[in-house]
Write a structure and sequence with these properties.
Elements (H helix, E strand, L loop, with lengths): L13 H11 L5 H24 L3 H28 L1 E7 L5 E7 L12 H27 L3 H26 L5 H15 L1
Antiparallel strand pairs: 1-2
Main location: membrane
InterPro entries: TVP23-like
GO cellular component, one term: Golgi membrane
Amino acid sequence: DSNDDIEDVSLFDADDDVSRRSKKSKIRHPVASFFHLFFRVSAIVVYLLCELLTSSFIACMVTIILLLSCDFWAVKNVTGRLMVGLRWWNQVDDDGRSHWVFEARKVSAQGSKTSSEAESRIFWLGLITCPMIWVIFAFSALFSFKVKWLAVVVMGVVLQGANLYGYIRCKVGSRKNLTSMATNYLGKQFLRQ
């Protein structure tokens, strides 16, 4: 009975800070987070281990391109919307002109985000790191004269680079020119020094 009267009390609010941080960093969409990284990492792993596992270039190429395509679709249509509240798409009007549409989720009335910091970190880390790896693979294939692999690597750069570009445009605003934003940022950094 004496155990019922005992209550855990945090000392100097340290436990309260830890519990607040854990709520912010909690992954709300674990399946989306898994698939955000699964297709990307799987395509890279298959590319690296392909020549060791099989001698069929066609089987490797098809597997890698299927993984990259699944990644492109999943990131563009599902994980971006769930994990960070961003999405983009291309719309063709009646005149046949192409219009790119970039959307960001509106902040709720209370001013809180519905996506967690952990999911946001996972999303942006995967979105930025993997295209950089494919660019390294492209230079490697080019300089080692593996021309047949260059087509596969270019597909990786294009598909993952398109998602990266689309989500950067969503994040910074669709109306702003990315080149002018970069030069303004670099100019500010130069003036600070």
